[in-house]
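Dig into what follows:
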Amino acid sequence: MFYQLPPVGNLVQLRRQVQDSDALARVFSPYIPRFLDSGTAALAAAVAAAVSLKDTDKPEVILPAYGCPDLVSAVLHAGARPVLADLEPERPWLDPARVAEAISPHTVAMVAVSLFGIPERMDILRPLAEQAGALLIEDSAQAFPCDSTAGCWRGDLVVLSFGRGKPVSLLGGGAVLFRDERFAGLLPDTDDRGSIPGGNAVALGVKAWLYNRMLSPRIYWLPQVLPFLHLGETRFHPLPAVKPMDANRRSLLPANIAAYCRRHERGVADIAALVAAAQAGGRTGFVDLPAACGYPAPNSLLRYPLLLARDARDTVHDRLRRLGASRMYPAVLPAIEGLETLLADAGAFPAASDFAARLLTLPLHGRVSDSDLAALRDGLG
């Protein structure tokens, strides 16, 4: 009970860089960033830009049926209707056939989510978006590539999140990236000269210090037993407003990006090896998702995702929970608390439902020890 690994979580660096504008420009080049107060706000701004580009009084946005409910929050805030499409069987990707069925004359955008850090297949979705006259928005909230960035992001707009548990975490904040100058006048003006007011440096520092301490396996168990914190719960929360990121987080962002890109994770190869050993041991219904997706850059994964047999997933999760195993989002979006009524007529999504019922993720952060690896190996095998 008194030792529990967090499923995910990189430390927040509190070292500031006063001259942050040039540093950030170099990080995101050739993209131009607009910094907002959350990843949800960033996605809402991207969707709003898509709505403004198409002449329709009933704008629709295609979303994966499995994902964070904040996807729906952003679409609704931008004045569009979410239209869900199923996943491919046993994959974290949108099924192109189901996307094609979801397209209508009112489709203004498709949101391609890089779940766990595994990139969506933008080359497959791009022709569908162009045929529909819609923007392809790349949700990279769980993926921050540190090598060949320009070649990794391929959406018309790219959305990032710097919230808790994201690759680069500032406990808040987000960004929309664009290269096409037409978006300069369609996205919120967040004053990229770095003079955005707001935010309390002392409060943010205390919050970040407490968050960093909480990530220790010797402490992380404590907030898990406090029900009023609702940690780990997946609920729908409407987005109240789209606001710029505060100057304090902006000043911390370059150092946190640099720290993330030089991080020394508990080797992804070690996790992959124990997953392969469990497969070799004859576990049935077992899918190693990074391997199945042919993902070439495992060091950029936020979590290591697996699909287990339905009748085994919960048992294995309970056995490995103290070692950071997670079931992620518990169900497809129409079944998430707060969305049952809003998405009541969304339809059935058998592949996404199966995915939700079988998913288990393993931790990849630097607090996974050799003894943790051995226990994970035993628990999976």
